[in-house]
Amino acid sequence: DIQMTQSPSSLSASVGDRVTITCRASQGISNYLAWYQQKPGKVPKLLIYAASTLQSGVPSRFSGSGSGTDFTLTISSLQPEDVATYYCQKYNSAPFTFGPGTKVDIK
Amino acid sequence: EVQLLESGGGLVQPGGSLRLSCAASGFTFSSYAMTWVRQAPGKGLEWVSTISGSGDTYYADSVKGRFTISRDDSKNTLYLQMNSLRAEDTAFYYCSKLRSSAAGAGGNYWGQGTLVTVSS
Protein backbone atom coordinates (compact mmCIF):
# COMPACT_ATOMS: atom_id res chain seq x y z
CA ASP A 1 0.00 0.00 0.00
CA ILE A 2 1.03 3.60 -0.60
CA GLN A 3 2.19 5.41 2.54
CA MET A 4 1.56 9.10 3.14
CA THR A 5 3.95 11.26 5.14
CA GLN A 6 3.75 14.92 6.12
CA SER A 7 6.34 17.40 7.26
CA PRO A 8 6.76 19.07 9.55
CA SER A 9 4.64 17.35 12.19
CA SER A 10 4.07 20.74 13.81
CA LEU A 11 5.02 24.34 13.26
CA SER A 12 4.64 27.67 14.95
CA ALA A 13 4.52 30.83 12.86
CA SER A 14 3.59 34.48 13.24
CA VAL A 15 0.45 36.10 11.91
CA GLY A 16 1.09 37.13 8.34
CA ASP A 17 3.79 34.53 7.72
CA ARG A 18 3.81 32.27 4.68
CA VAL A 19 3.40 28.66 5.80
CA THR A 20 4.17 25.58 3.71
CA ILE A 21 3.27 22.01 4.58
CA THR A 22 4.58 19.08 2.58
CA CYS A 23 2.86 15.76 1.89
CA ARG A 24 4.69 12.89 0.24
CA ALA A 25 3.32 9.66 -1.20
CA SER A 26 5.51 6.57 -1.33
CA GLN A 27 4.38 5.98 -4.93
CA GLY A 28 2.91 8.24 -7.56
CA ILE A 29 -0.73 9.19 -7.15
CA SER A 30 -1.02 11.69 -10.02
CA ASN A 31 -3.06 14.59 -8.60
CA TYR A 32 -5.47 12.50 -6.54
CA LEU A 33 -4.79 14.36 -3.32
CA ALA A 34 -6.99 16.30 -0.92
CA TRP A 35 -6.11 18.61 1.94
CA TYR A 36 -8.26 19.00 5.06
CA GLN A 37 -8.22 21.42 7.96
CA GLN A 38 -9.37 20.31 11.40
CA LYS A 39 -9.69 23.00 14.03
CA PRO A 40 -9.58 21.96 17.70
CA GLY A 41 -12.83 20.25 18.69
CA LYS A 42 -14.27 20.51 15.17
CA VAL A 43 -14.86 18.16 12.28
CA PRO A 44 -12.51 18.11 9.29
CA LYS A 45 -13.10 20.56 6.46
CA LEU A 46 -12.10 20.00 2.86
CA LEU A 47 -9.76 22.75 1.67
CA ILE A 48 -8.33 21.50 -1.60
CA TYR A 49 -8.95 18.57 -3.94
CA ALA A 50 -7.22 17.37 -7.07
CA ALA A 51 -4.01 18.64 -5.46
CA SER A 52 -4.63 22.28 -6.38
CA THR A 53 -8.35 23.01 -6.72
CA LEU A 54 -9.73 25.20 -3.96
CA GLN A 55 -12.99 23.96 -2.47
CA SER A 56 -15.80 26.50 -2.70
CA GLY A 57 -15.80 28.97 0.17
CA VAL A 58 -12.20 28.40 1.22
CA PRO A 59 -10.15 31.60 1.52
CA SER A 60 -7.77 32.28 -1.35
CA ARG A 61 -4.77 32.43 1.01
CA PHE A 62 -4.84 28.63 0.87
CA SER A 63 -3.28 26.98 -2.17
CA GLY A 64 -2.08 23.54 -3.14
CA SER A 65 0.41 22.26 -5.64
CA GLY A 66 2.17 19.11 -6.72
CA SER A 67 1.70 15.92 -8.65
CA GLY A 68 3.03 12.41 -8.51
CA THR A 69 4.62 11.95 -5.10
CA ASP A 70 5.27 15.44 -3.71
CA PHE A 71 2.60 17.94 -2.72
CA THR A 72 2.45 21.19 -0.79
CA LEU A 73 -0.21 23.17 1.01
CA THR A 74 0.59 26.85 1.35
CA ILE A 75 -1.04 29.47 3.52
CA SER A 76 0.12 32.74 2.02
CA SER A 77 -0.55 34.87 5.09
CA LEU A 78 -1.26 32.98 8.30
CA GLN A 79 -4.29 34.17 10.25
CA PRO A 80 -5.27 33.37 13.86
CA GLU A 81 -8.26 31.36 12.63
CA ASP A 82 -5.91 29.05 10.71
CA VAL A 83 -4.76 27.38 13.93
CA ALA A 84 -5.57 23.76 13.17
CA THR A 85 -4.20 20.39 12.18
CA TYR A 86 -3.89 19.86 8.43
CA TYR A 87 -4.16 16.44 6.80
CA CYS A 88 -3.52 15.24 3.29
CA GLN A 89 -5.39 12.24 1.85
CA LYS A 90 -4.75 10.19 -1.27
CA TYR A 91 -7.72 9.02 -3.28
CA ASN A 92 -6.32 7.52 -6.47
CA SER A 93 -7.25 4.05 -5.26
CA ALA A 94 -8.08 2.28 -2.01
CA PRO A 95 -6.88 2.41 0.69
CA PHE A 96 -7.68 6.14 0.83
CA THR A 97 -4.97 6.85 3.37
CA PHE A 98 -4.59 10.06 5.34
CA GLY A 99 -1.26 11.58 6.23
CA PRO A 100 -0.36 11.84 9.94
CA GLY A 101 -1.18 15.54 10.12
CA THR A 102 0.63 18.83 10.65
CA LYS A 103 -0.33 20.96 13.63
CA VAL A 104 -0.12 24.70 12.99
CA ASP A 105 -0.24 27.30 15.73
CA ILE A 106 0.59 30.94 16.21
CA LYS A 107 3.94 32.04 17.62
CA GLU B 1 -28.34 22.49 3.21
CA VAL B 2 -26.39 19.25 3.43
CA GLN B 3 -26.76 17.53 6.78
CA LEU B 4 -25.22 14.29 8.01
CA LEU B 5 -26.29 12.91 11.37
CA GLU B 6 -24.51 9.89 12.82
CA SER B 7 -26.00 7.68 15.49
CA GLY B 8 -25.45 4.29 17.06
CA GLY B 9 -22.24 4.83 18.96
CA GLY B 10 -21.77 3.80 22.56
CA LEU B 11 -19.92 1.54 24.95
CA VAL B 12 -19.45 -2.07 23.88
CA GLN B 13 -17.38 -4.94 25.23
CA PRO B 14 -14.48 -6.40 23.23
CA GLY B 15 -15.84 -8.89 20.73
CA GLY B 16 -19.18 -7.15 20.60
CA SER B 17 -21.03 -5.49 17.74
CA LEU B 18 -22.49 -2.10 16.92
CA ARG B 19 -24.24 -0.64 13.91
CA LEU B 20 -23.65 2.99 13.09
CA SER B 21 -26.10 4.97 10.99
CA CYS B 22 -25.67 8.23 9.12
CA ALA B 23 -28.88 9.97 8.10
CA ALA B 24 -28.31 12.27 5.13
CA SER B 25 -30.36 15.17 3.81
CA GLY B 26 -30.03 18.17 1.54
CA PHE B 27 -28.62 16.34 -1.49
CA THR B 28 -29.41 13.46 -3.83
CA PHE B 29 -27.99 10.72 -1.63
CA SER B 30 -27.91 8.00 -4.30
CA SER B 31 -25.66 10.12 -6.54
CA TYR B 32 -22.72 10.32 -4.17
CA ALA B 33 -20.15 8.03 -2.64
CA MET B 34 -20.06 8.01 1.14
CA THR B 35 -17.28 7.20 3.55
CA TRP B 36 -16.56 6.48 7.21
CA VAL B 37 -13.49 8.02 8.83
CA ARG B 38 -12.52 7.53 12.46
CA GLN B 39 -10.38 9.42 14.91
CA ALA B 40 -9.17 8.01 18.19
CA PRO B 41 -9.15 10.67 20.94
CA GLY B 42 -6.15 12.92 20.45
CA LYS B 43 -5.03 11.08 17.31
CA GLY B 44 -5.15 11.64 13.56
CA LEU B 45 -7.74 10.78 10.96
CA GLU B 46 -8.00 7.16 9.80
CA TRP B 47 -9.95 6.15 6.71
CA VAL B 48 -12.22 3.19 7.49
CA SER B 49 -14.49 2.39 4.55
CA THR B 50 -16.09 3.86 1.44
CA ILE B 51 -19.10 2.91 -0.66
CA SER B 52 -19.52 4.32 -4.14
CA GLY B 53 -22.78 5.56 -5.57
CA SER B 54 -23.10 2.27 -7.43
CA GLY B 55 -22.48 0.22 -4.29
CA ASP B 56 -18.82 -0.78 -4.67
CA THR B 57 -17.22 -1.11 -1.24
CA TYR B 58 -13.71 -0.56 0.05
CA TYR B 59 -12.18 -1.21 3.47
CA ALA B 60 -9.05 -0.43 5.43
CA ASP B 61 -7.03 -3.56 6.23
CA SER B 62 -7.57 -2.87 9.94
CA VAL B 63 -11.32 -3.47 9.63
CA LYS B 64 -11.61 -5.80 6.64
CA GLY B 65 -13.64 -8.87 7.48
CA ARG B 66 -15.07 -7.27 10.63
CA PHE B 67 -16.86 -4.14 9.37
CA THR B 68 -19.46 -3.87 6.62
CA ILE B 69 -20.48 -0.64 4.95
CA SER B 70 -23.86 -0.39 3.28
CA ARG B 71 -26.34 2.18 2.10
CA ASP B 72 -30.11 2.39 1.77
CA ASP B 73 -30.80 4.97 -0.90
CA SER B 74 -34.54 4.77 -0.22
CA LYS B 75 -33.89 5.95 3.33
CA ASN B 76 -30.96 8.28 2.53
CA THR B 77 -28.95 6.43 5.15
CA LEU B 78 -25.42 5.08 5.36
CA TYR B 79 -24.53 2.25 7.71
CA LEU B 80 -21.44 0.70 9.25
CA GLN B 81 -21.92 -2.72 10.83
CA MET B 82 -19.04 -3.32 13.20
CA ASN B 83 -18.41 -6.84 14.51
CA SER B 84 -15.64 -8.40 16.60
CA LEU B 85 -14.84 -5.01 18.06
CA ARG B 86 -11.44 -4.42 19.64
CA ALA B 87 -10.11 -1.82 22.03
CA GLU B 88 -8.23 -0.22 19.15
CA ASP B 89 -11.54 0.49 17.39
CA THR B 90 -12.33 3.08 20.08
CA ALA B 91 -12.75 6.38 18.25
CA PHE B 92 -15.08 9.05 16.99
CA TYR B 93 -16.64 7.80 13.77
CA TYR B 94 -17.49 10.39 11.13
CA CYS B 95 -19.53 9.88 8.01
CA SER B 96 -18.66 12.04 5.05
CA LYS B 97 -20.24 12.74 1.69
CA LEU B 98 -17.72 12.54 -1.12
CA ARG B 99 -17.58 14.99 -4.01
CA SER B 100 -18.71 12.46 -6.61
CA SER B 101 -20.31 9.05 -7.05
CA ALA B 102 -16.84 7.54 -7.41
CA ALA B 103 -15.09 6.18 -4.34
CA GLY B 104 -12.01 8.21 -5.10
CA ALA B 105 -12.89 11.77 -4.16
CA GLY B 106 -12.53 14.18 -1.27
CA GLY B 107 -15.14 14.44 1.45
CA ASN B 108 -16.80 17.82 1.22
CA TYR B 109 -19.35 17.41 4.00
CA TRP B 110 -18.90 15.74 7.36
CA GLY B 111 -21.17 14.74 10.21
CA GLN B 112 -20.46 15.64 13.81
CA GLY B 113 -19.35 12.12 14.66
CA THR B 114 -20.42 9.40 17.06
CA LEU B 115 -18.17 7.96 19.76
CA VAL B 116 -17.54 4.23 19.91
CA THR B 117 -15.85 2.97 23.06
CA VAL B 118 -14.72 -0.64 23.22
CA SER B 119 -13.96 -1.61 26.80
CA SER B 120 -14.78 -4.23 29.39
Question: Describe it for me?
Answer:
The complex is a heterodimer of chains A (107) and B (120). With 107 residues, chain A is mainly β. Chain A has a single domain (4-106), classed as Immunoglobulins (Immunoglobulin-like), CATH 2.60.40.10. Chain A is 0% helix and 49% strand. Chain A has strands at residues 4-7, 10-13, 19-25, 33-38, 45-49, 53-54, 62-67, 70-75, 84-90, 102-106. A six-stranded mixed β-sheet of chain A has the order 2-10-9-4-5-6, with no helix packed on it. Chain A has a four-stranded antiparallel β-sheet with strand order 1-3-8-7, with no helix packed on it. In chain A, strand 7 and strand 8 form a beta hairpin. The model of chain A has no long low-confidence stretch (mean pLDDT 97). Chain B is mainly β and 120 residues long. Chain B contains no helices and eleven strands. Chain B has strands spanning 3-7, 10-12, 18-25, 34-39, 45-51, 57-59, 67-72, 77-82, 91-98, 107-110, 114-118. In chain B, the strands form two sheets. In chain B, strands 2, 4, 5, 6, 9, 10 and 11 form a seven-stranded mixed β-sheet that branches. Chains A and B meet through strand 4, strand 5 and strand 9 of A and strand 5 and strand 10 of B.
Short description:
With 107 residues, chain A is mainly beta. Chain A has strands at 4-7, 10-13, 19-25, 33-38, 45-49, 53-54, 62-67, 70-75, 84-90, 102-106.
